[in-house]
Write a structure and sequence with these properties.
Helix content: over 70%
Shape: globular
Order of helices and strands: HHHHHHHHHH
Number of strands: 0
Mean pLDDT: 85
Largest sheet: none
Distance between the termini: 21 Å
Radius of gyration: 17 Å
Low-confidence stretches: none
Number of helices: 10
Length: 216
């Protein structure tokens, strides 16, 4: 939600750069709360390698895209996520296919993450399709995001999208994010999950439509 919301105030390239440090902070906290990693790094090694490659490619594409095109891609991506959720798209992958799909899924997720700052859709669908239980899913997603965002940070600096001014802004957003994270932990058991999910989808749909309309 952060990238499309911030993109209402600044261009998409700046929004991606501003959120990379808050993302790293949140992912680190989530990974710490998820407990020992176990065999997660070994199991996800191939996915992570291609996710890192895709992140570099996606960041390079973000540099090359015009601000208008980047906004259109982000808006379209957000609307695609909403449609997938509404359709309750939940595929299942046979155990023997995991290594075959790890590379293409990782590459696609990395490229999407580099352009839109949201690699989670492809990765989350992949993990759910593998039949991961809740704890394994949380550990896997947090570890994957942390690795991918670390590569994204280096890529943004390398391609000149993250300068000193944006670093200061990113650190400020990270501090605000910590406050929000703490509030979220207190509220998570009090909110009705179904109503919350609906509210998030409506919010994202409005943001996505607004970004597409603005780009067009």
């Amino acid at each position: 939600m952060g990238t499309p919301l911030l993109a209402l105030a600044v261009d998409v390239k700046s929004a991606v750069a501003l959120l990379v440090i808050p993302n790293l902070v949140m992912d680190s906290l989530q990974l710490r709360r998820s407990g020992p990693l176990g065999n997660v790094p070994r199991r996800l090694a191939l996915l992570l390698v291609f996710s890192m490659i895709g992140t570099v490619i996606g960041t390079k594409l973000l540099v090359a895209l015009s601000a208008r095109t980047a906004t259109l891609v982000l808006g379209g991506f957000i609307l695609g996520y909403v449609l997938l959720d509404l359709a309750r798209f939940s595929p299942r992958i046979p155990a023997g296919w995991e290594r075959r799909l790890a590379a293409p899924v990782g590459l696609a997720a990395g490229i999407m993450g580099g352009i839109t700052n949201a690699p989670g859709t492809a990765i989350a669908l992949y993990f759910v399709a593998l039949g991961m239980d809740k704890k394994e899913f949380v550990r896997s997603i947090a570890f994957t995001f942390l690795v991918v965002k670390g590569v994204q940070l280096v890529s943004l600096v390398w391609y000149g999208l993250l300068d000193g001014r944006l670093v200061l802004g990113s650190l400020g957003l990270a501090a605000i994010g910590l406050v929000g994270f703490g509030l979220g932990l207190k509220l998570q058991d009090r909110l009705d999950q179904r109503s919350f999910n609906r509210a998030v989808l409506v919010f994202l749909a409005v943001l996505g439509l607004w970004l597409v309309a603005r780009a067009l």
